[in-house]
Every structure is written in structure tokens, then in C-alpha cells.
Design a protein that fits this description.
Chain lengths: 572, 824
């Protein structure tokens, strides 16, 4: 039985360490290869030993697909390819390929430099890993091999983020990665065509949330920043340098210009600067507005925002705005959870005097967006990943109710198996087609039509031909199959007379058919043959032997039932 | 446990037990469990529970019917297991009947929570921790846990199913530990109850017709024999081997992969392989019964065994070689005089497998090539090794993939059609070909090897990954070319190849793909490293455009390529293969010297990789007394250190310290220790007075660089600087007697003040020229050992502490609703 199997090694009822294994029509694909921010040991990476118990990973996996450059989707990639030993192809979009090494280098820096970890992947490994990448364009169908093809769709979320359709023959799976269904200041909205996949694997970070209007959130953010600055204070926004940083930079830049504000805005040098470089480079991946105005003014060349120099650092001031999630084990997490005293090195305790605001600017689809995408793609089933179990449960019910499709939410390590009914292409012979055409019916792609013929399976090919052609091709003689039935009639007359009575009766009843009485005494109606014989034990009874071919099955059945009722009395 | 943690624990337990309080994320629970594991490893669990009654209360509380999160339930089961691992604590928990309620029928096992895989996983892991002593075994038997474990082997979660299998192995081992030494009886009745039950289950599973059940039984046995070599395992194998053998009578052989794993595990176990239960016969029989794809791993495993009958090894090798033998035969090549390959050619099953479909063909060939690649370097590989036919097969495969072979036979043509353009086989064959370079072959064949490699390097169809492998294989073959004894120059044939290769490399260095340009540069680096000093190579290289192109790549748009170009240029220059036409008479028209160019990259390149590469080149140049550096080393050092100290990339600054160390070594004399960071008493004191020796270091401002680096915001830089200064202090300690220290002088005070400012994070003004006396005084006054100790801690060690974890978990209560789980 053909089936699609999906096993999340990470992101199953969980956020972080995205890694989903998909088996489709005998092909094995790994979707994302992320790390978990919350762990500093082996648990940070998916447990790849579960992929295959026997044999090498490179032989088992046909390809790895990375949806976007965030570390929870690509952070384990150099480990997987250079330390675990996967040596096959890795697919991602061009911007992802360009930005991924920056993020991976940054991750390496944190692990090796800040946390002093040994045995971590090296810069050389990151480079070697990136050299295995095959970059893809949006909407380009890429043949991984003769059977497996993939296609990327725009996902919003961050620069270069893509949803991927994985297709083998007529079976397909769509993996969304992280996506955003509403355009923001620098990126467009995710979009996919009505590809009707067998399965849609969608993220569900905001499975139960309907996000408040983005405008409100932005207004609120700007108001808070403005107030703090007006009071002579400073605002610190520790934002992830790629993605949200650019969004907030554009927001602040526009506001500063509109309000004619003079207070300086700085961003930290290094990573953000590099990120801006790539945003300029891949301008086609941004939203329409930015693309349109690009010639007159590149939105990523900020007037008011300057690179931060360490020399400016003094006391950061009275407000910190956290525009995203902070994992446990960080100062950010402590501040966000409202701890007002922080223990630092040497038992030194720092008091948190500043105002702390949490304003999420992360670009995920909310519940409405997820439903919208399901509606857009029209999948046969849906599978939720990258979210919390409880919230997924709610969304699952909603999807099942609204779209009448099965929705799954496997935990990490759990396998979901979906039976599929693959459609197999069949070639049709010209002769058969001509015969159909001769009947005056032109083929119509939208109207399925019943066609009789003989299916020949040869050399892994299927062909439908006329029976005559099949016999000729296969060198076979025709057999005739006849159905037979015995009908007992109470009639003491001779057999010939009984046959004559039958003939007269049928002639009167079946006016549209050709009823014949043959010289040997038998009666025919089309292919149906009726012969009358004496009963061996009861001379008052005659036996009618009825036989017919399968083509006249309906008529045959009708005739037998007619004869079983007996012959009309009047004629006797 | 710290008193602070003890204080926080009751509140945390209360939060965990409260279903209205969601737990922030399960990483916190994992970390909490890690902490309890550390505590119980170091001390008594019983004492811990007695001192912190809230823990038992938590375990009791989770049993109450309520809507508790599955995470907390799973955590509690695992926690109970950790505590009960110590027998006295187990008894303590048993008194309250807590364990049966947690792990028995009345617990989560029978409830709705059981549907959550995390709870089932917690249950298994809890039992795995708990099963450490005889009392635990009784408990397992009494509460019927073993039956549940049997059923969990087929769980829908891979993690649970695998853990269940592991747990059975563990319980079996534990229960057999109690048995008297020596060979236990074969009679099942003599075995402990738990063991009997498990073995009975395995036997039943092996009799089953359901493949998953057979697989589970085989996996349990594989792990058992892999981990435990006690005498009882031999008895177990004697008892079960007929059943295992009977699997071979089925067609197709069920759970073939797992069966292979089991047989190899048995063969690797010294006690089992020598036992007289026909292991070798079973292995031989299995080799015959399995399909070519399944037999490959078994054949490789057999060939890797240390002791194994020769006949079996020969049989395994034939099986392993079969696909390649078929390829040779199909392409009309004589497999050669080797008996092994000759006997491998006739197998129709392999031919069928090869030709059945493209996927099957590619899979079988890739696996075969990978197996042979693994086998080649092993000492126990078969002897004689059929080097020639294997080389022939690898070359043929590469030709088939390119379509450059034109086989006459039908099978050959079919193969050609299947393999044409197949990147997977190309990659595998190139890797294998590279491995084969460890031995050579007849000249004609080696010529063919180079021809096919050049064909790949030239082909516009070769993908970047294939090109990289082709470069690597080419280098390995050039390296293995026969050499004149005592001379490491390239032999004439290899030189011919090189002459053909350089124009190809030249073309590849201009590839629009950065991956290809980079692989080309890496290849050039390897070649220059090996043959840069050899006349033939030098001549060929200098006659080509390659050095000029490489220099142009210093300005490549891709930073990885710029970095590789820097490395190559540094090396070319070291070997005298890059000569800048410096003409002081025409300063306007001269080309920039490489040193200036590299300094420019170091100061201006926006990416870290090229700057790091420059620092590595400079360090090597300094070590090698490169002419550009030796001219005015002090000026070079002063300039490089100044630029490096400003760099935002910590690895560039760390490299700066590496460079400083080399300079230090050269200035103060040679050290006998090879590990410069090892603080060992110096054996060679500088020739002149110490102050004089330190002068150059002061002039290049090495100390200011090192002192600043001591408080660098990046830890490895500070560590490196600390080590360097400690080393210098030890070095100068023995010979500083003659030096007048000006400890109380104003200069020392100002330096110390500057250090304090730097430590506080202030950038401050440069120190200016330091006197050696001041440096020595400062060296003595700074607590370098203390600093080194502090730097040994990770930057997040405060946030990683258990106390911090407990505080964080408590602080999240109530806030969670507002800041719902988000991500990036």
C-alpha cells in the first residue's frame, strides 16, 4: 500500500530544533535541520541516530531542505553534514544560502567563545557544508533525481524564507517552514498556489492567537520609544539582528523622519550591518513597496540610524524593549520574567531599574493566517508542527471542522502514516481513441469518461488498447464466455412447439430486438440462445436452456426473469 | 543542595503540582532533572527526600486526578526513578506505596495521560533509572511492568519504542547479574523470573510471523550481545540460535537488516563467536539467502572481523565485489587475473538488482563503493587486494556516468542509460577512487585514472560537489604517484598531468560558482604545500596564469573565496612563487606588494574569514622569516598588532596574540617546550640583558595589545592573552634579578590604572611607549592566575546555575500568559 510517512525529530509539539523526516513514494527527505536554543549539550541537536538504524545517512536520505536561515531551522546543519556524515544534497533559497553561514558563525562564536565549548563545528566545516548547498529560485521546479522534484514558494517571515513542495509522481507534500500571511514593512505575504498536496505540514506557533492589528502594535511600540526618548532616556532593543532588526529599523527611520526627531538611533556593528548588506543584495525578495522605491531610495540605507561604536556605551538608560522570545538561561529571560535583581559574576547583584516591555514582532502566521493557507493549498490532510501541544489541539479541531480533512499533530519521534492512492498514467492506443471519436464524442479534460479496452502492463508501462489489438499484440486466441441458465416450464407439448411458443412470446414482447427462430428449432435474441429440451423425469415439463455473452448480460438477465414467469396462456 | 536552592524548592514544587500554572518550556524541566541527577550521584537520595519533603509531596500530588500537564507528569516519573535508583530510597518510597502508584496500573499507565508519548517516555525512563538493584527487579515483576514494556516496543513513538527495547536489555542484564558465576544452566526453569519472562517473549517473537515483532526481538538480542559478554549470554545464544537460524528458511528473510546486525554482534563477541553453535555456517547461509543490497553490510561486517574462517571471508568478499564485477563484465572488461572478481561475475541476482530500476542500481552501487572505501584502509582487508579491477571498475563507473563509455553488451547499455548524469554515483566513485590512491596500479590504468579525473574537471556538466571531489581525488593520485627514492618531486608522468591540469584549474578559478572557485583554490593550496619547493612544479605553475588569477581572487565578491585566495597567495609568496615587481625607482608605476595588499585586506575587508586568513599568513611568514617581514620585522609587527587590536572579529584578535607569541619567542630566544601555553621553567634565557631583550616588544606595542586583550569582551582572546603573559612572566622570572624594577614609579601606577579602566569596560586612551621595567612590574602585580581561573568559566555560568534555574522557573509564573511562547 503506498503511503506517506512523517516523523518529526524536532518541532513535534515543540518549538525549536525543527527537523522533520518525510518518506514519500520511497523517497526520504529531511525538512530543516535546526538546533534548540534551550540546551547546551547533545540535546541541542535532533537525535539523528533515529533516521536509519542500518546503513549510511547519505544512502538513506535523498535530500535535505532548509526553509530559512533561522538557527532553529538550520543550526544543526554543519554538525549533520560534516560531523554525522551526511554527504548528499542540501537545498535552500539563494538568500538563505548567503545568510546561513553568518548565523552559523555567530552560533559557533557563542558556543565556542562565550561558553567555551570544545568539539563544536569549525568555520571550515561551515564552509564545507555550505558548499554542498544547491540554491533554488522561487517557483523553480528542481529535479533532485528522476522522480523527486521540489519547488519553493514565498513564505514572508524573513528574507529568503520559503515553503517547499515535495513531489514524487502524483504524490506531494508541502512544508511551510515558518511563514507570515500578512505583509510587513519589508517583506511580502506568503503565497502558494492551489497545489492540492496529499499533505500540508504547517507551522503552528500562533495556533490559537489572532494577532491584534499590526498597526496598533507598531503605534504602541513607537509611542513607547518616543516617550522614553522625550523624557531624555534611552531605549535598548536587543533584537535578533536578521529579520526583525530591519523591520524595526524601517519603522523607526520612517517615524523619525515624519516627526523630525533628532535623537540618534544606533544599531550594533557587525551582524546587523552584514544583514543590511544582504537585504540590499536580495531586494527582489522584499515587498512590493520596497522594490518599487528602491531606485529612488533604498529603504535599507538609513539616514537616522548609525552603526554603534563601543565608545558610545555608557548607561543604557531607562527602558528595554524585547521584541522577541528569550530562552531560559539568559539575562533576557530573567528581565522578561520580571526579575528585578540579577546576580552577576562574583556574587555582585545588579538591580534592574529600567522599564521592561515585551512586544512581539515575530513574523508568524496567526490562526487566521494558517487557516487561510490551508484554504489556499487545499490539501488532503494537514499536519501541525512547530507549536505547543495544547494550542495545536485547538487548531487541529478547527481545521478538521472547517475543511473536513484529517489533521495530525505528532510528538517528536511519533510517525504519522497516510495511505495514498497514487494515480498511474496510462497510455491509450490511437485505435481506441479513434473509435471513441467516431462515436462523435470529443475528449474533454474536465469530464471523465468511461472507456472500454484492455489494459496491458509491459516494461513498467501501462497501455489501454482495444481487445482486438490486445489479442493481436499478445498473440492470443479469443475465448468466448457465455452465461447459462436453465428455466423450467410446465408444458406437455413437444420441444419444437415449446420453442415456437417462446419465439412468439418474445417476438411480441421484445419489439426493438431481433428475435429469430432458427431451423434447428432454437430461438435467438441478439447473442442470446434459447433451446427447449425435454425433462428427463417429468414429461409434462420442458427445460429451456438459455445462454448469452457478457455483452448482453442485461438482456440475458431480463429474458430469464421473463421466461421464469411462464408463457402467456392465451396462446395455448 | 545549596541552602538557597533548598529554600526555593518548596515553592517550585507547588508550582509544578498546580495544573493552573503552565510550565514555561520543557527545557527547564530537563535541566531540573539534570540537576537532581547530579545531586543524587554525589550523595544520598534518601537524605535529599527527607530534607526536602516537598519532593515526595510533589510525587504524591501528581497522582491525583487532575488536568496536570503531561510534561510535569513525565518529569515526575523520571524524577521518582532517579531517586529510587538508590536502594534505601527505593524502600523509603515503597513504604508509601508511591512507586506502584506511579508505575503500576493505578498510575498514569491506566489513565488518559498515557496517550501522550512524553508520559510513556517518562515512565520508561523512570523505570530505567530505578532498575539498579534486586529490589527493583521484584518490583518490576510485581507491578507487571515487564508486560507493558513488551507492548511499548511497538509504540508509535520511535523514542518510546527504542527506549523500551533498551530497558528490556537492561532488565535482562540486571536479573542475570544475580546468577552464580560460570555457565548457567540451559534449563529455563533455573533462570530468574524476570529473565525467563523476557527470554520467553523473545522466543515467542522470533516464532511470530509479524516482521515488527521479529525486528524487536532481534534488536534486543543485538544490544544484549553488544553490551554484555558474561557467560550467560553464551547460554542464551545457544538456546536462541536455532530460532534465529530458522528465520533464514523463510523467503524473503524477515527483518533482514536487524538479523545482519544481530549476527555481526554475535560474531564480534569473543565468547559467542567461539562457541560451537554453528555461527560461521549461519553467516555463510545468510550471505547466500539475502538480496545483494542486504548482503553488503553483512559482507563488510564479516571482513572487518578479526578472527573469522578464511572461506567465509572469501565468500563475503565475493558478495561485496559482485556489483562492481557485474559492471566490469557488462562493459566488456576482463575482471583481471584476480580469482575473487572472476568468481563474483556470474551472479544473476546482482545483475537483476542492478538493472531493476535506476534507484536500485544507484543505491546498490553507492553502497558497494562506500563499503569498499571503508574496507580499503583496514589492516584486516582481504589479501590479495584486487587493486587493478577495482580501479578499473571505479574508472568505468565514472565513464558510464559521463556517457563516455560505450559498452557493447545489452546489460552495459542498460547500465549506461541508468547511470548517465547520476551525481550520487559520481560522488561515491570519486571518493572511492581517491581512497584507492593509497596503492598504485599499472601505468596504463593510472593514466586512465588521471584521464577520467581530467574529464570530470573539464566537463561543464560537473556539479560543484562533484568537482570538489574530483579535485580531492586528483590531489591524492598526484600524491601517490611513484617517486624516486629520497626525492619528493613529482614524477614525469604526474608532471605531464599537472601541465594538463593547470589550464583546467585556471578555468575553474574563473567559474561563476563560488564553490568551484573555492575548491580550486583549496586544491592549489594543497599542491603548493607539497610541491612548492620542487622545480618541475614551480616551472609549470609559473608558466601558467594560475598565480595571476589567484591574486585577482583576493578581490572576489565572495568572502570564502577571498580567504582561500589569501591563504594560497601567502603560501605562493613563502615559496617564492609570487614575486612582486618592486621597483623603488618607479614608485608610481609599481604594483602593490603582497604585504601591503594583505594589510589592506586586514584593515578593510568587511568579512572575518579573509582577515583571519591574513593573520594566519602573517604568523606563518613570521615563523618562516619571510623576506617581506624580515626586512623590518618591528614595523611589520607594530602595524599588524595595531590593526588586529581594532578588529571586531575575536578570532582575528586571537590570531594577533598567536603572532605576538611567535615574535616573543623569536625575540627572547627559543623555547624547548612545543606547547607555548604550558608554563614550564624556561631553559634558555635571552642572550643579552633582559631589558634589552624586551625593548623590541615594547617598541611594537605588544604589551599594550596583550594587556588590552586581557580584558577583551571575547573570552578566548582574554584567555590567550593571559596565557601569553603568564608565559612571559615565567620566562622572565629567573633572569630578572639584574633588572631594576620601578614598582612604585608613576608609570606603573598609570598602567595599572589603565588596566582597571579596561577591566571596567572603558576603552580609554592608548598607553604610549612602555619601558621594560614597567612591563615587568605590571606583570607581577596583575593577578593573572586569578584571571585565568575566572576565564575558565563560561560566560553563562551564572545563568546556568541551579539557583538561577529555580529562580527563573518561579519568576515565569504568571508572566507566561502575557509573553506567550514565541520564536524567531
Amino acid at each position: 500500500m503506498p503511503e506517506i510517512r512523517v516523523t518529526p525529530l524536532g518541532a513535534g509539539q515543540d518549538v525549536g530544533r525543527s527537523c522533520i523526516l518525510v518518506s514519500i513514494a520511497g523517497k526520504n527527505v529531511m525538512l530543516d535541520c535546526g538546533m534548540h536554543m534551550g540546551f547546551n549539550d547533545d540535546r541541542r541537536f535532533p537525535d539523528f541516530s533515529y533516521i536509519t538504524r542500518n546503513g549510511r545517512l547519505t544512502d538513506f536520505l535523498d535530500c535535505v531542505i532548509i526553509s530559512h536561515f533561522h538557527l532553529d531551522h538550520c543550526g544543526a546543519l554543519p554538525y549533520f553534514s560534516e560531523m554525522v556524515g551526511y554527504d548528499g544534497p542540501i537545498y535552500m533559497t539563494h538568500p538563505t544560502q548567503a545568510i546561513c553561514p553568518i548565523l552559523l558563525e555567530d552560533y559557533r562564536k557563542i558556543a565556542v567563545d562565550k561558553k567555551g565549548e570544545a568539539n563544536f563545528f569549525t568555520s571550515q566545516m561551515i564552509k564545507d557544508c555550505m558548499k554542498k548547498v544547491v540554491a533554488v529560485h522561487l517557483h523553480q521546479t528542481v529535479q533532485v533525481d528522476d522522480e523527486l522534484e521540489i519547488k519553493a514558494y514565498y513564505a514572508g517571515h524573513v528574507l529568503g524564507a520559503a515553503m517547499f513542495q515535495i513531489k514524487v509522481g502524483s504524490e506531494s507534500v508541502v512544508y511551510t517552514g515558518d511563514y507570515n500571511m500578512t505583509p510587513d514593512r519589508h517583506l511580502g505575504a506568503a503565497w502558494i498556489d492551489k497545489c492540492r498536496p496529499n499533505l500540508l505540514i504547517t507551522e503552528s506557533t500562533y495556533a490559537t492567537t489572532i494577532r491584534d492589528s499590526k498597526r496598533c502594535r507598531e503605534r504602541d511600540f513607537l509611542k513607547k520609544v518616543h516617550e522614553a526618548v522625550e523624557r531624555g532616556g534611552k531605549v535598548l532593543i536587543p533584537v535578533f539582528a536578521l529579520g526583525r532588526a530591519q523591520e524595526l529599523c524601517i519603522l523607526l527611520e520612517t517615524f523619525w523622519e515624519r516627526m523630525n526627531l533628532k535623537a540618534p538611533i544606533y544599531f550594533s556593528t557587525g551582524l546587523t550591518e552584514k544583514a543590511n548588506h544582504y537585504y540590499k543584495l536580495f531586494i527582489t525578495w522584499t515587498n512590493q513597496k520596497i522594490r518599487k522605491t528602491f531606485v529612488q531610495r533604498n529603504m535599507f540605507e538609513f539616514k537616522h540610524i548609525k552603526a554603534f561604536d563601543r565608545a558610545f556605551a555608557d548607561n543604557p538608560g531607562p527602558m528595554v524593549i524585547m521584541p522577541g522570545y528569550c530562552v531560559q538561561g539568559t539575562v533576557g529571560h530573567k528581565i522578561l520574567s520580571g526579575q528585578r535583581k540579577l546576580e552577576m559574576e562574583g556574587r555582585q547583584v545588579l538591580e534592574v531599574k529600567m522599564q521592561v516591555e515585551y512586544m512581539s514582532f515575530s513574523a508568524h502566521a496567526d490562526a487566521k493566517g494558517i487557516m487561510q493557507l490551508v484554504g489556499q493549498a487545499e490539501p488532503e490532510s494537514v499536519l501541525l508542527v512547530h507549536g505547543e501541544a495544547k494550542k495545536m489541539e485547538f487548531l487541529k479541531q478547527k481545521i478538521e471542522q472547517e475543511f473536513r480533512v484529517n489533521c495530525y499533530m505528532p510528538a517528536n519521534g511519533e510517525t504519522v502514516t497516510l495511505p495514498t492512492s497514487p494515480s498511474i498514467p496510462v497510455g491509450i492506443s490511437l485505435g481506441l481513441l479513434k473509435r471513441e471519436m467516431a462515436q462523435g464524442l470529443l475528449p474533454d479534460a474536465k469530464k471523465p469518461r468511461l472507456l472500454h479496452g484492455t489494459l496491458i502492463m509491459k516494461d513498467s508501462n501501462f497501455r489501454l488498447v482495444s481487445s482486438e489489438q490486445a489479442l493481436k499484440e499478445l498473440g492470443l486466441a479469443e475465448h468466448q464466455l457465455r452465461f447459462t441458465c436453465r428455466v423450467h416450464l410446465h408444458d406437455p407439448r413437444k420441444e419444437q412447439e415449446t420453442a415456437m411458443r417462446v419465439y412468439s412470446h418474445l417476438k411480441s414482447v421484445l419489439k426493438d430486438h431481433c428475435v429469430q427462430h432458427l431451423p434447428d428449432g432454437s430461438v435467438t435474441v441478439e447473442s442470446i440462445l434459447i433451446q427447449a429440451a425435454a425433462h428427463s423425469e417429468d414429461p409434462g415439463t420442458k427445460v429451456l436452456l438459455v445462454s448469452w455473452t457478457y455483452q448482453d448480460e442485461e438482456l440475458g438477465s431480463y429474458l430469464t426473469s421473463l421466461l421464469k414467469k411462464g408463457l402467456p396462456q392465451a396462446s395455448s | 543542595m545549596d541552602p538557597e536552592c533548598s529554600q526555593l524548592l518548596p515553592a517550585l514544587c507547588a508550582v509544578l503540582a498546580d495544573p493552573r500554572q503552565p510550565v514555561a518550556d520543557d527545557t527547564c524541566l530537563e535541566k531540573l532533572l539534570d540537576w537532581f541527577k547530579t545531586i543524587t550521584k554525589a550523595g544520598s537520595s534518601l537524605l535529599l527526600l527527607q530534607e526536602n519533603p516537598c519532593l515526595v509531596e510533589l510525587l504524591c500530588h501528581v497522582l491525583k486526578p487532575q488536568d496536570l500537564s503531561s510534561r510535569v507528569l513525565s518529569f515526575s516519573l523520571r524524577l521518582a526513578g532517579v531517586f529510587a535508583a538508590q536502594e534505601d530510597c527505593f524502600q523509603y518510597l515503597q513504604q508509601g506505596e508511591l512507586l506502584p502508584r506511579l508505575f503500576g496500573e493505578p498510575g498514569p499507565l491506566g489513565g488518559a495521560a498515557w496517550t501522550a508519548p512524553s508520559v510513556r517516555s517518562g515512565w520508561i525512563q523512570g523505570l530505567r533509572s530505578l532498575a539498579q538493584h534486586p529490589s527493583a527487579l521484584h518490583f518490576l515483576a510485581d507491578c507487571g511492568a515487564v508486560d507493558t514494556i513488551f507492548s511499548l516496543q511497538g509504540d508509535s513513538s520511535l523514542f518510546v519504542a527504542s527506549a523500551a527495547g533498551q530497558l528490556l536489555v537492561h532488565i535482562l542484564g540486571l536479573s542475570m547479574q544475580g546468577l552464580a558465576e560460570g555457565h548457567p544452566s540451559l534449563q529455563a526453569g533455573d533462570w530468574p523470573v524476570c529473565a525467563q519472562k523476557i527470554v520467553g517473549h523473545i522466543e515467542e517473537s522470533l516464532h511470530s510471523t509479524a516482521v515488527p515483532q521479529i525486528t524487536q526481538a532481534l534488536n534486543v538480542l543485538t544490544t544484549t550481545f553488544g553490551h554484555c559478554h558474561d557467560p550467560w549470554t553464551q547460554v542464551l545464544w545457544v538456546r536462541l540460535s536455532p530460532l534465529v537460524g530458522s528465520l533464514l528458511e523463510k523467503d524473503p528473510v524477515p527483518a533482514a537488516h536487524s538479523l545482519v546486525d544481530l549476527l555481526l554482534s554475535v560474531a564480534r563477541s569473543p565468547g559467542l563467536s567461539s562457541s560451537s553453535c554453528g555461527l560461521w555456517e549461519t553467516l555463510a547461509q545468510t550471505l547466500n539467502h539475502l538480496s545483494p543490497t542486504q548482503a553488503g553490510p553483512l559482507a563488510l561486517g564479516i571482513l572487518k572481523l578479526q578472527d573469522c574462517p578464511q572461506v567465509l571471508r572469501a565468500q563475503a568478499f565475493v558478495i561485496l565485489l559482485q556489483p562492481l564485477a557485474c559492471v566490469l563484465k557488462a562493459t566488456g572488461q576482463d575482471p583481471g587475473p584476480s580469482d575473487v572478481l572472476d568468481s563474483a561475475t556470474g551472479d544473476s541476482l546482482t545483475v537483476d538488482a542492478l538493472l531493476s530500476s535506476k534507484a536500485a542500481c544507484v543505491g546498490l552501487l553507492c553502497r558497494t563503493l562506500a563499503h569498499l572505501e571503508l574496507l580499503q584502509p583496514l589492516p584486516q582487508r582481504p589479501c590479495p587486494w584486487p587493486q587493478e579491477p577495482l580501479l578499473g571498475a571505479a574508472v568505468t563507473l565514472l565513464q558510464l556516468c559521463r556517457g563516455s563509455a560505450s559498452p557493447a553488451s545489452d546489460v552495459g547499455r542498460h547500465l549506461c542509460a541508468l547511470l548517465l548524469g547520476c551525481v550520487r554515483v559520481q560522488r561515491a566513485a570519486l571518493d572511492f577512487l581517491g581512497t584507492l590512491s593509497q596503492e598504485t596500479g599499472p601505468q596504463e590504468l593510472v593514466t586512465e585514472v588521471f584521464a577520467v579525473l581530467l574529464e570530470y574537471l573539464r566537463s561543464p556538466d560537473s556539479s560543484p560537489t562533484v568537482l570538489k571531489k574530483a579535485f580531492q581525488a586528483t590531489f591524492r593520485w598526484l600524491l601517490s604517484s611513484p617517486k624516486t627514492p629520497g626525492c619528493c618531486d613529482l614524477e614525469p608522468h604526474a608532471l605531464l598531468v599537472l601541465r594538463e591540469l593547470l589550464p583546467v584549474l585556471q578555468k575553474r578559478l574563473c567559474s561563476p560558482c563560488w564553490e568551484v572557485r573555492d575548491s580550486g583554490l583549496e586544491f592549489l593550496t594543497q599542491m603548493t604545500r607539497h610541491w612548492g619547493g620542487q622545480a618541475g612544479f614551480r616551472h609549470a605553475l609559473l608558466a601558467s596564469e594560475v598565480p595571476k588569477l589567484t591574486e585577482q581572487l583576493l578581490r572576489d565578491p565572495e568572502s570564502y573565496v577571498r580567504a582561500s585566495a589569501v591563504t594560497v597567495m601567502g603560501q605562493l609568496s613563502s615559496q617564492g612563487l609570487h614575486v612582486t615587481p618592486v621597483s623603488p625607482e618607479h614608485p608610481g608605476g609599481q604594483q602593490k606588494s603582497l604585504l601591503v595588499e594583505l594589510l589592506h585586506i586586514l584593515s578593510t575587508d568587511s568579512e572575518g574569514f579573509p582577515r583571519r586568513a591574513v593573520m594566519q599568513v602573517f604568523t606563518q611568514w613570521l615563523r618562516d622569516h619571510h623576506a617581506d617581514v624580515a626586512g623590518d620585522t618591528e614595523q611589520f609587527m607594530a602595524r599588524v598588532l595595531q590593526v588586529a587590536s581594532q578588529d571586531l572579529d575575536w578570532e582575528v584578535r586571537a590570531q594577533g596574540l598567536e603572532l605576538a607569541l611567535v615574535f616573543l619567542e623569536q625575540t627572547l630566544g627559543q623555547f624547548h617546550s612545543h606547547c607555548p601555553y604550558a608554563v614550564t621553567p624556561p631553559v634558555a634565557a635571552p642572550a643579552g640583558p633582559l631589558a634589552q631583550a624586551l625593548q623590541p616588544l615594547c617598541r611594537v606595542r605588544l604589551f599594550e595589545f596583550a594587556f588590552r586583550a586581557l580584558f577583551d569582551c571575547d573570552r578566548p582572546v582574554a584567555q590567550k592573552s593571559c596565557d601569553l603573559l603568564l608565559f612571559l612572566r615565567a620566562k622572565t622570572a629567573s633572569s630578572s634579578g639584574s633588572l631594576q624594577e620601578s614598582r612604585s614609579g608613576p608609570d606603573v601606577a598609570s598602567v595599572e590604572a589603565a588596566l582597571q579602566r579596561w577591566q571596567a569596560g572603558d576603552q580609554g586612551q592608548p598607553l604610549g611607549d612602555l619601558e621594560p621595567e614597567v612591563v615587568l612590574a605590571v606583570l607581577r602585580s596583575v593577578d593573572l592566575e586569578g584571571l585565568r581561573g575566572a576565564l575558565a568559566e563560561g560566560s553563562d555560568h551564572m545563568e546556568k546555575s541551579p539557583q538561577s534555574l529555580l529562580q527563573d522557573m518561579l519568576a515565569t509564573v504568571g508572566v507566561l500568559g502575557e509573553n506567550e511562547a514565541d520564536c524567531y
